[in-house]
Amino acid sequence: MERTMIEVFGARVRQARLLRRMTATSVVGLAGWSNARQTKIEKSPTILLSFHEVERLAELFRFPARFFSSEPQSRVSAGELLFRAPKSMTVGEQDFLATFASLAGDFLGGLDEMSKLPPVKIPSVSDEGPRRPSLVQAAGRLREAMGLEPDEPLDDLMYEAERLGAPVIVRRRAPGEWESEFAATPGRARDERHLGYSSWVGRHRDRPLVVLRETESWERTRFTVAHELGHLVLHSRAYCSVNSSEELEANRFATELLAPVAAIAPELPRVMSLLNLKPLKDKWGLSLGSLIMHMRDSGLIDAKRAKMLTTQLHSRINPETGHTWGMTEPGWNERDPERPRLLRKWVERCYGGASVPMLAARESLIFPPDLLDWFLATQRPSPGTDRHPVAASAGSSGAVSAAPESMPQVVRLDDFRRGKTP
Predict the structure, then answer these.
(1) Rounded to an integer, what distance in angstroms lies between the CA atom of residue 208 and that of residue 201?
(2) What is the domain range of residue 360?
(3) For the whole model, what pTM was predicted?
(4) Whether residue 156 is found in the same domain as residue 38
């Protein structure tokens, strides 16, 4: 068996290492080969390794051995992520996010081969040059693509994004998940410093993907989705390093998408106060803080009034939480945070269920159980379906017993949109 050679894709070895947040030096010590060989493996398009060497990598990275011999389809680099990395974010953390997007893209590509995902209908204005529409017009184009009237509030933004062909993954991090004593970024620095990012994935980079960090704030969730849609509409290009002005553009796009200025202008209260603005927050589904900035940027209020309202927002105490309104605004608990459904729905359609143990036991899938769980953990399940978190796999065999699961019911898309699933 030792002489059996297996063709391995170097990019897969690098992806597994980056996802587990391990340094190349630590891998060298554990794998038992030189730094030069580790570099050669990761940089080679393909390389022949012995059966036992592949098994060693599988055990080290907690990935099925078949992962390393599968050809990567999505290759997203950190420079192609549509977000502005905080100054405190390390290169390793950015590589981790890019790797996660790449693997999510491969997972989506496999589903699309089995059952076509919704076609991409997100408009892009990034290549229109001097004729590029204003932010208000660009947001209007996206609302039109969603089938909304100019004065119609967005009910479920995450659903609308997925209906236009942009899958959403809300990443939940369980205690101890992805931890390694050989992590490239030790200690508390591993805590992520971003709310979300977007990218184009797939062999031809033609599928938009939105990835969010889980938060229980419905206001922050909706704004982050709208912000990432802004990047996809305004800044879609093959190689992108988002700058500060483009971040501001995405912010302004997000508020205009959620609450068109032409629609909210007639609804502004005569006496401008935080409590009097609460009905607009409730109707249009954005935070008071975002609403204040939107009114200022749109010229509905002047900078002095905006500063006064913002100061009040961050000085008043919410008696329910003990925090300022800037942290927990009035109405903070009146909605549940939106959650995606498309990915789980397609997994159920393609595999007859979305149980992670069942999926991990399939030879056709190349991903470890904990990564599959991360893809699916916060996806809205079918009514009556329970799910349980899955711990990181300890070995390379992927031998997990399949859990019995009933066949999914098929519902009309319009009924699903309105929540009328049985």
Answers:
(1) 6
(2) 353-417
(3) 0.85
(4) no
Both 65 and 86 in a single domain? no
Whether 178 and 32 share a structural domain: no
In a domain, 106, yes or no: yes
Q: What is the CA radius of gyration of the chain?
A: 23
**CATH number of the domain that residue 37 is part of:** 1.10.260.40
Whether 61 contacts 180, CB under 8 Å:
no
CA distance 200 to 206: 6
Give the number of domains in the chain: 3
Instruction: Tell me: do 154 and 209 sit in the same domain.
Output: yes
DSSP lists the bridge partners of residue 49 as 6
Q: Which pLDDT tens digit goes with each residue over 347-356?
A: 999 999 999 9
Q: Give domain status of residue 337, yes or no.
A: no
Tens of pLDDT, residues 207-263: 999 999 999 999 999 999 999 999 999 987 645 568 889 999 999 999 999 999 999
Shared-domain flag, residues 275 and 388: no
Instruction: With CA atoms as reference, report the closest residue to 154 among 250, 230, 257.
Output: 257
Q: Which of 287, 283, 282 is nearest to 222 (CA)?
A: 287
